[in-house]
Specification:
The complex is a heterodimer of chains A (544) and B (231). In chain A, strand 4 (242-249) and strand 5 form a beta hairpin. With 544 residues, chain A is α+β, with helices and mostly antiparallel strands. Chain A is built from 14 helices and twelve strands. Chain A is 55% helix and 12% strand. Chain A has helices at 2-14, 33-37, 39-57, 66-84, 86-103, 116-165, 169-184, 216-229, 270-337, 343-375, 387-397, 399-402, 422-439, 495-505; strands spanning 188-193, 199-200, 238-239, 242-249, 252-260, 383-385, 407-410, 418-420, 446-453, 456-463, 509-514, 520-527. Among the domains of chain A are: 29-149, no CATH class; 296-373, Orthogonal Bundle (Helix Hairpins); 383-527, 2-Layer Sandwich (Heat Shock Protein 90), CATH 3.30.565.10. Chain B has helices spanning 15-26, 38-48, 64-74, 88-96, 109-127, 158-169, 177-185, 193-207; strands spanning 7-11, 31-35, 52-56, 79-83, 101-104, 132-135, 138-141, 146-149, 152-154, 174-176, 217-220, 224-227. In chain B, the strands form three sheets. Chain B has a five-stranded parallel beta sheet with strand order 2-1-3-4-5, with helices on both faces. Helix content of chain B is 42%, strand content 22%. Chain B folds into two domains: 7-126, Response regulator (Rossmann fold, 3-Layer(aba) Sandwich), CATH 3.40.50.2300; 129-227, Arc Repressor Mutant, subunit A (Orthogonal Bundle), CATH 1.10.10. Chain B has eight helices and twelve strands. In chain B, a hairpin with a 3-residue loop joins strand 11 and strand 12 (224-227). Classes of the chains: A alpha+beta (544), B alpha/beta (231). The interface between A and B is medium-sized, with 36 and 34 residues.
């Protein structure tokens, strides 16, 4: 397997040098700290233990038989083995034998042993000591391996958790670099290809764990030639103590990871190799994931733009063609045979042209507004405004459409000023009132109310029309959604979408519901801000 | 200014719009000189001595705001701005720079007519002071500083009166927030829009039957206020 090979290659080729890393992986069996620092203390205990056993046994030499004395030596060796490892226990057992022979086995004060029983006992003790210390050593090794595995698993878990939170390439780069530093204690950099396939440094400013000065040429070569060259027994390029790892996924090469290896300890352990393998694999997977997500986002945006274009086109062709037809007809008649018309007829045609053109102009500006707000991001120009004024402005704009329709406005006394973009909020009121006009009979009343709740201001625009079909309350705010899609009621289905975008830009909410007693109600909530102090001193005012 | 037929300087680059405006205004007995660029417009403002200028904001050579500034350096002739919908901010900037009113494209000849008459009247009114102002049921005795609504006297605070007075001086025309703030509270307060909103609200509650649907003190959201003209 290419991947396996490349990792093995890099471990043997790149990580030869041994240094003082600080990462979590360094706490592995080979470098367990007590082996490094307390080795001599362990040997010392190996020497001391038989001495202590001798001191304990000496006063008891008349009460205990040689077998029991041997058991105490065995206990000493066992304790040394369990605490200080095999080397110390061997020392202890090798010293215990002559000590027993010299002090306890007759003839006393001579290394010679006369009793065959004692010779057998001593031999058994040596064997048991050796076997137990071996067993203990293996148990400890297994425990260390387990701890190391746990630490590797934790590292992988941390990485995959961090990577799963990464939403874009930048975040993957940051996560990879900081996790590699956390585990290996070395700086690294993730080189990703641009649109043209050339590897680049990340666009963001480097982290403190980032590797600087990686050789883009080497990385590029690896990136371009990975498939054909890298395999078993092929060394991963190492240059100036920097090792370059290809990141590969099912979709091909995704990038190159450069790690400074000069300061990494020798990592020949299989576990570590597999770990690195998985580690790099996860980074590659995450990169692929965010890339696919980005492509999906772009596709959605494109689809939305496409839908917007279609919707605008159909609105333009449908809603503007009708008045245009009438204008062309009337103007044509006037241009071709004005003289044959009576003065009354002539005026009718002229007025028709004017009225239809006005309607077209209104429609046109509405469609343009919708398109502008729907495509662009909403930028607020906030000022302190009076709700009364904004609402008045909206009603004024709709004067013609409202005609004599009853509009009941209930604003409580002393409403505070609101910190909003007046032009956009007026657009919200205009759209809501316009909807009420569009979907209800000409004499049906519209109720507009405002209420203050602690630090919120609630508004409602309510009508007595047919209401909203059950379950459609939220869909109304979707782009291009129209209640009656193919009717004469003009619109592109962006009005409420725009309302919601504007209200949400103000950190408010807007919802639709059916009104008790029939009709629809659109309620909007805006947060109130602490208005600035106003001095009511008027003494400075000069006479106009 | 000549009593019979005012001279209007039309600065607009689109020949079709120029032609339509010329016909429409000419029919009302107004004389027109045309300029198709900002620079020609500026030089004609000096040479022709017009009574009023109509200025399109989207000119090919100069931006509308600088044309307004240059015009204001040499004369105080009334300036009416024609703006497209995408030029909201330019419009306010041009008004703050000294333009007197605006019309959003497309507009009807009726609207244009009303604006031009309001603008020309402002010039006349500046000359005559100490008269009474009347529109609808609102009557203001400018000499005695008294305000009447349907015959009843309404008591205004000094600031309220000052705001009303400024709007009367520009009756029928838009007065920007900045202009009002500067005139009433002074140049240090041009950004204190909350002062204006509060006093405007008070004034409306005193003068309007339904403050949310005003008849006299109209709001031009994002631009300023307009006192409905006494046509």
């Amino acid at each position: 397997m290419v991947w396996q090979g490349s990792i093995r290659g890099c471990v043997t080729a790149g990580l030869e040098e041994r240094g003082s890393g600080r990462g979590r992986l360094l706490q592995t069996p080979q470098w367990a700290p007590y082996r490094q620092h307390n080795r001599y203390a362990a040997y010392l205990w190996g020497v001391a233990a038989p001495g202590i056993c001798t001191l304990i046994d000496w006063p008891l030499r008349h009460t205990l038989g040689p077998a029991s004395i041997l058991m105490i030596y065995l206990l000493g060796v066992f304790l040394v083995a369990s605490r200080f490892g095999r080397a110390a226990s061997i020392i202890a057992s090798l010293l215990s034998a002559p000590a027993f022979a010299f002090f306890f086995a007759p003839p006393i004060f001579s290394l010679a042993i006369s009793d065959i029983e004692n010779v057998v006992g001593l031999a058994v003790m040596m064997v048991v000591a050796n076997v137990t210390s071996n067993l203990l050593e293996r148990v400890r090794f297994q425990a260390d391996i387990a701890a190391q595995r746990e630490s590797l698993a934790t590292a992988l878990y941390c990485l995959s958790r961090d990577l799963s939170e990464a939403q874009d390439e930048q975040a993957v780069v940051r996560t990879a670099v900081s996790n590699i530093y956390g585990e290996l204690g070395v700086p690294s950099v993730l080189l990703l290809p641009d649109a043209g396939g050339s590897l680049r440094y990340p666009a963001e400013s480097p982290l403190w764990q980032s590797l600087r000065g990686a050789d883009l040429g080497t990385a590029q070569w690896l990136f371009d030639h990975n498939k054909s060259i890298i395999g078993d027994n092929v060394d991963i390029p190492v240059k100036d103590h920097v090792t370059y790892f290809p990141l590969e996924s099912a979709h091909g090469m995704v990038g190159v990871l450069a790690i400074r290896t000069a300061s990494v300890p020798k990592l020949s352990n299989r576990e570590v190799t597999t770990f690195l393998n998985t580690f790099l694999n996860q980074i590659a997977q995450a990169l692929v994931r965010v890339r696919l997500a980005m492509e999906a986002r772009e596709a959605t945006l494109q689809a939305e733009a496409e839908a917007l274009r279609n919707s605008l086109l159909s609105a333009i062709s449908h809603d503007l063609r009708t008045p245009l037809t009438r204008i062309m007809g009337a103007a044509g008649i006037l241009a071709e045979r004005e003289n044959s018309l009576g003065p009354e007829e002539r005026n009718d045609f002229k007025r028709a042209i004017l009225e239809e053109a006005e309607r077209m102009s209104e429609l046109m500006s509405k469609i343009l507004d919708m398109a502008r707000f729907a495509v662009g991001k909403i930028v607020l120009h906030r000022e302190w405004n009076a709700i009364e004024e904004i609402l008045g402005g909206a009603l004024n704009r709709l004067e013609k459409a409202l005609q004599d329709r009853p509009v009941r406005i209930q604003l409580p006394e002393g409403l505070p000023l609101v910190w909003v973009d007046a032009v956009l909020l007026q657009q919200v009121f205009t759209n809501l009132i316009e909807n009420a006009i569009k979907y209800t009979a000409a004499s049906s009343p519209i109720d507009i109310t405002a209420e203050r709740f602690a630090s919120m201001l609630n508004f409602a625009v309510a009508d007595r029309g047919p209401g909203i079909p059950k379950g459609q309350e939220e869909r109304l705010f979707e782009k291009f959604y129209r209640l009656e899609s193919e009717t004469a009621k003009s619109g592109v289905g962006l009005g409420l979408t725009l309302c919601r975008a504007i209200v949400e830009a103000h950190a408010g909410t807007i919802h639709a519901a059916n009104r008790s007693g029939g009709g629809a109600v659109f309620s909007m909530t805006l947060p109130l801000h602490e208005p600035p102090q106003v001095s009511l001193d008027e003494s400075f005012v000069s006479e106009p | 200014m000549t009593q019979s037929s005012p001279l209007i300087l039309l600065i607009e680059d689109d020949p079709q719009t120029r032609r339509f405006l010329k016909t429409s205004l000419g029919g009302r007995g107004w004389r027109i000189v045309e300029a198709e660029s900002g620079k020609t417009g500026l030089s004609m403002a000096k040479s022709e001595n017009p009574d009023l200028a109509i200025l399109d904001l989207g000119l090919p050579d100069l931006d509308g705001v600088s044309v307004v500034r240059c015009l204001r350096l040499v004369s105080d002739l009334p300036i009416l701005i024609l703006s497209a919908r995408t030029q909201e901010r330019d419009k306010v900037e041009a008004l703050d720079a000294g333009a007197d009113d605006y019309l959003a494209k497309p507009f009807s000849t009726g609207e244009l007519d009303a604006r031009l008459r309001a603008l020309l009247r402002r010039v006349v009114k500046a000359a005559i002071n100490g008269e009474t102002f009347e529109t609808g049921e609102l009557k203001v005795d400018l000499a005695r500083r008294k305000v009447f609504m349907a015959g009843n006297e309404i008591r205004l605070t000094p600031i309220e009166y000052r705001i009303l007075h400024l709007l009367i001086r520009h009756a029928g025309l838009v007065v920007t927030h900045r202009h009002l703030l500067k005139d009433v509270w002074g140049p240090d307060h041009v950004h204190d829009s909350h002062y204006l909103r509060i006093y405007m609200g008070q004034l409306r509650h005193k003068l309007e039957a339904d403050p949310a649907r005003p008849r006299y003190l109209l709001t031009e959201v994002g631009v300023g206020y307009r006192l409905s003209g006494n046509d």
